[in-house]
Amino acid sequence: xxxxxxxxxxxxxxxxxxxxxxxxxxxxxxxxxxxxxxxxxxxxxxxxxxxxxxxxxxxxxxxxxxxxxxxxxxxxxxxxxxxxxxxxxxxxxxxxxxxxxxxxxxxxxxxxxxxxxxxxxxxxxxxxxxxxxxxxxxxxxxxxxxxxxxxxxxxxxxxxxxxxxxxxxxxxxxxxxxxxxxxxxxxxxxxxxxxxxxxxxxxxxxxxxxxxxxxxxxxxxxxxxxxxxxxxxxxxxxxxxxxxxxxxxxxxxxxxxxxxxxxxxxxxxxxxxxxxxxxxxxxxxxxxxxxxxxxxxxxxxxxxxxxxxxxxxxxxxxxxxxxxxxxxxxxxxxxxxxxxxxxxxxxxxxxxxxxxxxxxxxxxxxxxxxxxxxxx
Length: 376
Ligand code: TYF
Ligand code: FE
What we know:
This is 4-hydroxyphenylpyruvate dioxygenase. Its cofactor is Fe cation. With 376 residues, the chain is an alpha+beta fold. It has 2 domains: 11-164, 2,3-Dihydroxybiphenyl 1,2-Dioxygenase, domain 1 (Roll); 176-373, 2,3-Dihydroxybiphenyl 1,2-Dioxygenase, domain 1 (Roll), CATH 3.10.180.10. The chain is built from 11 helices and 17 strands. The longest helix has 14 residues, at 359-372. The structure holds (2S)-2-hydroxy-3-(4-hydroxyphenyl)propanoic acid (TYF) and fe (iii) ion. The site of (2S)-2-hydroxy-3-(4-hydroxyphenyl)propanoic acid has 11 residues, from strand 10 and strand 13.
C-alpha cells in the first residue's frame, strides 16, 4: 500500500497540459430535442445555447445545457450519412466528447500529438462579436474525443456558431455543481495501454487501482485505475472487464456500446439528500438500495457522518470513507435503452477516493439489473 496522500500523488503529474476543469460533455444522440428536454426536466439543467438549421448550421442540431459548472451539449445528425448519425447507429446515444478547459488549445494539441495523441481536430480559432474561442482535439479510448477549449474572455452564450437559447420552460436546478470524474470502459487487455496513454500523452498520474480480486462479487469482475491530472480537476478512471463466474458488467457495456466508451459521469452536489429526492421526484431511476445490514454497519465501518443515516437509507445512498474523510454516492440506472451510460451523484466530505468500500453493495445492485436484462 502506498502511503502518499492524493495531493502528493497528483503533484507527481507533469504539467505540459494545464487543465482548468471540464469545459463541456457532448453527447451524440438520436433526438437532441427530446434528450435536452429530459436533462432539463429530470436533472434540472438550464437552457443555454442552440445551433442548428435556424442558426445556419445545416448538418446537425445541438442544444447546450448548464447546471453549476456542468455543461452538456446534446447533438444529433440531420441526415443518415452524417458521422453523428453513424456514431449513434453503432453506439446508441452516448458521450462523444469530453472537453477540457485549457489555457492554450494550440499548445495542448502540439504537446499531446507530439507524444502520440491521434489528431481529431487541428487547432482552430473561432470568432464572433462576443470574442474568441480556440479549440483542438485528439482521440482517447474507442471513438471518444478529448477536445481542448481555450476561452479568450469569450462573452457569448457558449461559443461562436451557437445562439443564446431562451426557453419558456425552465425547471428548477437540482443542486448539481461540477463534474467530479468521468469513467471509461476499455476492452480486454486495454487497461495497461490506456493508462500508459494518459501518462505519456496527457501527463496524468495513476492515483488509485483496484484489481479483480478486490472487486469481484458473485459475478461482476472488473479492474479499475484512476488517472488524474496535476491539479485533480480532470479525473478519468478506466475500467477493464475481468474473468468472473459470469459476464462482467464492463463486458455487457462493451457488447451494447459496440466498443469502448464513457461508462459513467459523476456529478457533485453539496446536498445529496436534496438532489436525489428531487431527481427521484422527476423520474430519474436509481439502482436499488443495499440491504438493511449495510446501513446497520455504517457507524462501525465509517464512523461519524453529519447526515441522518435513516434518510440516506430511504434514498438508497451509499456511504464510504478513506483516511481523508467520507463520501456519499448513488448511481442511476442506464439513461438509454442500451445498458451503457449512467450517472453517479457524489457528495464529498474530505474523501478523495471513489467508494471502494461500496463496490460489493454497488455491484450486487448492478448485477440485479444485468439479470433483469438477461445479460448475466
Ligand atoms: O468511479 C468509480 O470508480 C466508482 C465506482 O463499473 C465504480 O464510481 C466503478 C466501476 C463501475 C461502477 C462504479
Ligand atoms: Fe464513479
